[in-house]
Amino acid sequence: MTTRTKELIAVAAILVFALIFYIGRVSGWQATEFSTGTSIVVVVLLLASLLWMLALTIRGRLIGRRVVFLYVGVAVAMPLFMKLSQEMPVSLAVLGVYDAVMELQPGSKVLIACDYDPPTAPELQPMAETFIRLCFQRDLKIIIMGIWPQGPQQANLALEKILAEPEIAAKNLEYGIDYVNLGFQAGNEFVIQRMGGSFKSMFRTDYGGIPYDDLPLVRNVRNFSNIDYCFNLSSGFPGTVEWVQIAVDRYGVKLGAGNTAVQAPTVYPYLSAGQLTGLLGGMSGAAEFEIAADARGKGTKYMLSQSVSHIVVIAFVIIGNVAFIMSGRRSALKG
Amino acid sequence: MRREVPLLITAVVGITFVVKYFVPHFPFNRMDAWFADWFSIVQACAIVLGALNLLKLSALKVIGQKSGWGYALVIILSFMLITVIGLAEGSDYRDPGTSFDWLYVNMFIPLSATMFSILAFFVASASYRAFRARNYEATVLLIAAFFVMIGRVPVGDVITGFMPEGYRFSDLAIWIMDYPQTAGQRAIMIGIGLGVVSTSLRVILGIERAHIGTGD
Amino acid sequence: MKRTCPTRPELSSRQFKSLLAAAALLLIFPGSLLAQQTFVQTDTITSADTLGVQYTPAPPQNVVAMDTPNDGGGSIIITWGPSPDDFDGGKVKLYRILRAEYNGGQPGEFTEVGDVPSGKAEYENEDGNTTDDIMYLYRVMAVNRMTNEAGEIEEYTSESPATDPVTSSAQWFDSRRINALVGVILLCSFIIYFIQQARAGKELYIRKIAGMEAVDEAVGRATEMGRSIYYVSGLGDMDNMQTIASMTILGRVAELAAQYETHLAVPVCRSLVMVTGREVVKEAYSKVGRPDAFKPDQVHYLTDDQFGYAAAVDGMFVREKPATIFYMGQFFAESLILAETGNSIGAIQIAGTAMPAQLPFFVAACDYTLIGEELFAASAYLSREPKLLGSLKGQDIGKGLILIALIVGMLLETFGIWQFSNLFSVID
Amino acid sequence: MEAFFEHFRLWLAAFLTLGIFSFLYKDNPWYKLTEAIFVGISAGYWFVVLFWDNFHGKFWVGAGEYSINWVVAKLTGAQAPPPPDSSIDFMLWVGAFLGLLMLLRLVPKIGWISRWPLAFIVGSTGGLWLINYFASNVMVQAQATMVPLFSSAFGTGFDQNADAVIGALIIFLGTFSGLVYFFFSKAHTGVFGGTARVGVFFLMITFGASFGYTVMSRMSLLIGRIDYLLGDWLGMIK
């Protein structure tokens, strides 16, 4: 069989596999989830095969880059099926957000500012989902907005998902009364500043074009003084820094934030200065928040993926060095 | 004329922009904003040149039936598709629900997010191949990378759990980032600053004049 | 003075109007009213007090208004000392700044231009919304806020006397930046001095830079293998110094390629860089006497998109298998995507960038990497022209002075003398 | 129809995602097709964005439309538009003029005029960054390095913890030796060469550390894509 035939067969197999599962999904198959036993077996197998790679290297067979790629792919994909829960303590920064929400009276109005886009969704979307679910569970009213064009779209995806969950669906929540998406407004930090005067001046209509005053939830919301808590999901500028500097420092808003791992260090000083009630940083922040809210979901899974893929990278660094030492410390630049 | 005028423009404009830094008075205080606006308008005009170049090269491939002409045709078609839709959409082209937005969300985003995510594989293969204790420099690089990497996952602290708080892998990672890493960055940044001053000066003085091309 | 208004959320029409006015002002002058809308705690009125005397604070002291120095006009600074009642738990909750125009000896009506929460030892506030050459008077009002038994907020205020008339104006020199001026003149003089020295024929020593030494060899290798050379100039546009430096290096590389008669391809992702790149390569080809060999489409545009560009260049690498690849300029996340692919096809790769975050990826995946300042030195180094090399020597003198300053500064700081390091402070 | 678009949407994005991933195996027709679509779509995307945001949003709204209305009104004798408010800035015409000169490249005979706007851009960039880099990179970083070795001065007591002293020393040594490495006009020999070697040591730590630090954020991107394929598309995971 030539390589070409093999490749064609592989593509056909992927297509058939995808079709089967797609049709399955459409006809209502349940999502797959490994039991704890299977998960442990998978992890052990992965580690064992890495050891085998090490053994192969010691015996003088170099591993090509495609093998490395395959391992990274598997290390990221497999944990997504697992239920295995990494035990991790919930940090004070994350508890800060959780406690602030738990302290709110039912009926309180929460503003969720979604300032991120799809590339950073893996880190921030789980935070948005957990936060929205927690608010609905606590019977809080949600007002969504964004100063990033795609933020409110991301929020809609999260809303759609959470509203479909049986526990939340049973509450029969109504748009305009229990939650509202005001959409995107251009103007960066000036939007926040003008919202300090009037929300309505910035959001004449909601995401779908309904006039501001026709939305019972926000009709009486004039500015930040009518908001009980604000949560900002941010992956850059404008984002948490601007929310702190304007909404918190100037208008006295109570603010919690969720940030990407890359951005979290810049925001940390605000947390220690008390300008933020809490901070969820990166995937570990998302995972901890899910643990705190007792709703293990994507964040926890993603965190597991991240840990396993990290271990794989570190393992290959070790294997690479073994290969180098085995080859008599010659220059292995192109290995 | 063709050489002297551009050299003169470069020199005069360059010196004006240096002076600008020290003068808060109008019009100097507005020059930063003006330049940013002008530049973005010039960019918008210049992209016509770039787009025509891309279309021309692709069209030549299609007409000449050169290898890969089919792909060149795809480039032309997809370029035309999104451009025509985007221009017809009006200045609200980016609003949710427009066709432009549909193309953006369902084609552009998956493509760029996937290309970006390829980096995860390449980071792994680059670490595998390059982080080897080949010599003294490479060993230092390897050790620093290893500690920071392991310090950023929970496993790192599990391994060093026997150590008192503040002396675990995660603390080591933070320490490396805060001190030796900062020092190295600083040396690089100061060097860059001096390099930029020298390069700018050569450009303004007309010693470095590649950008204005030949005399004809 | 006493103002009564109900607490939130029901607003009196008056407060509502002032809120509306504030909102309207915010819409018109987004940047100028940064100090507006300070939220303060209120105390509760415990006994009936019709006159409000016991709640009225003493006015602030020593109110002075002056033109903001070192600015472009349109701004006045007001400073004052705290009211005697301004202490923790005291009667002052905030200060309001009032302004009136002063025409022909007559002050106009005083209107509020900003407010500041209380609790500081000295106050300084900027009114950034003045018109130059108009005279203004300022008063500062100390404000106490109390909640009465009906749950309404009452305000008790007292005002300072008006300041002397003051106008704002623009200055022609920012005196705070004199340190940068001296520094830059010093550094530029060194560079120009050594350029002159070199022109006059003085021999200058320049150490070897590994990445630059390798350029000849890399171009030669492409010639031997009969394959092309790729030059990637990064994501920066022509408003970026790294791209300008990259264009000067492109000139040298193009000269070599023309001499060796090796094909040079320059895929770019900015139209202006394409235009500039063509001028540069054309100039290089005619400089070595091969103007006919130049084809404008050697320098071609792909797309302005970061990852679209990376995808296309990756495709070219694997299909055309260049023997040598240069990466010079400003790079972001695509650096490793390109360099790993280049590495996988076995090309010799020479990179140079001043992006600290991308340097590690180039170091890991390329054969040679020019780090930061080396990128800016590369064109001088490759040209071997004395006057360009002279500028490197001038740069080094600047570096030497900074090294000395670092030692002196650290020692003085350690002994508690910080005036020296303050010489280096920069005003934004 | 709507249902069809929903299926189409999911498959289209999956097709493009897998097309890019297939490059990891090797170059192939699927990748070539995806790459061509990517180049065309993204070039067009930026063309549209630059047109609407930069040309229309800045120049046309900020100056062009008003000026042309005014000229047309003057020529036809109609009522002139009201005097410009603060949103109109006639200086934007300079940008349009430079852009026009740039477009003259399309006319081969006078294409050389495009070097003028180029010279303008390069000159202003040079001037702008010369001073900005000097201030923000050289002065600010030098000042940041001049910290007391002991966090309070000698005169006021000597109760230092070792961490702070070591930290300040490392930052100083690293910056100093790193700068020595960048000397071009002195041979790296003797004490000088030794210091430069220490500098290289610090540079390597810097590179290693930033590399290690970045690995984590890169992984999260891949997790997002795989989650799309296995979750949104195939519904295999929740």
Helix-strand blueprint:
The complex is a heterotetramer of chains A (335), B (216), C (428) and D (238).
Chain A: H1 3-26, H2 36-58, H3 65-77, H4 92-103, E1 109-115, H5 121-137, E2 141-146, H6 151-163, H7 166-169, E3 179-184, H8 189-195, H9 199-202, H10 216-219, E4 229-234, H11 240-251, E5 255-259, H12 264-272, E6 278-281, H13 282-292, H14 298-326
Parallel strand pairs in A: 1-2, 1-4, 2-3, 4-5, 5-6
Helix pairs in contact in A: 2-14, 3-14, 4-13, 5-6, 5-13, 13-14
Chain B: H1 4-20, H2 31-63, H3 69-88, H4 99-130, H5 136-151, H6 154-159, H7 169-178, H8 180-204
Helix pairs in contact in B: 2-3, 5-7, 7-8
Chain C: E1 2-6, H1 13-28, E2 43-44, E3 61-67, E4 76-81, E5 94-103, E6 106-107, E7 111-117, E8 123-127, E9 136-147, E10 152-159, H2 178-199, H3 210-225, E11 229-234, H4 241-260, E12 264-268, H5 271-287, E13 299-301, H6 306-320, E14 324-330, H7 334-344, E15 348-353, H8 359-365, E16 368-371, H9 373-383, H10 386-414, H11 419-422
Parallel strand pairs in C: 2-9, 11-12, 11-14, 12-13, 14-15, 15-16
Antiparallel strand pairs in C: 1-10, 3-4, 4-8, 5-6, 5-7, 5-9, 9-10
Helix pairs in contact in C: 2-10, 3-4, 4-5, 4-9, 6-7, 9-10
Description:
The complex is a heterotetramer of chains A (335), B (216), C (428) and D (238). Chain A is built from 14 helices and six strands. Chain A has helices at 3-26, 36-58, 65-77, 92-103, 121-137, 151-163, 166-169, 189-195, 199-202, 216-219, 240-251, 264-272, 282-292, 298-326; strands spanning 109-115, 141-146, 179-184, 229-234, 255-259, 278-281. In chain A, 54% of the residues lie in helices and 10% in strands. Mean pLDDT of chain A is 88; it is low at 331-335. By secondary structure, chain A is an alpha/beta fold. In chain B, helix 7 (169-178) packs parallel to helix 8. Helix content of chain B is 74%, strand content 0%. Chain B has 216 residues and is mainly alpha-helical. Helices cover 39% and strands 22% of the residues of chain C. Chain C is built from eleven helices and 16 strands. In chain C, strand 12 (264-268), helix 5 (271-287) and strand 13 form a beta-alpha-beta unit. In chain C, helix 2 packs antiparallel against helix 10 (386-414) and helix 9 runs antiparallel to helix 10. Chain C is elongated and about 95 Å long. At the C-D interface, helix 2, helix 5, helix 6, helix 8 and helix 9 of C face helix 2, helix 4, helix 5 and helix 6 of D.
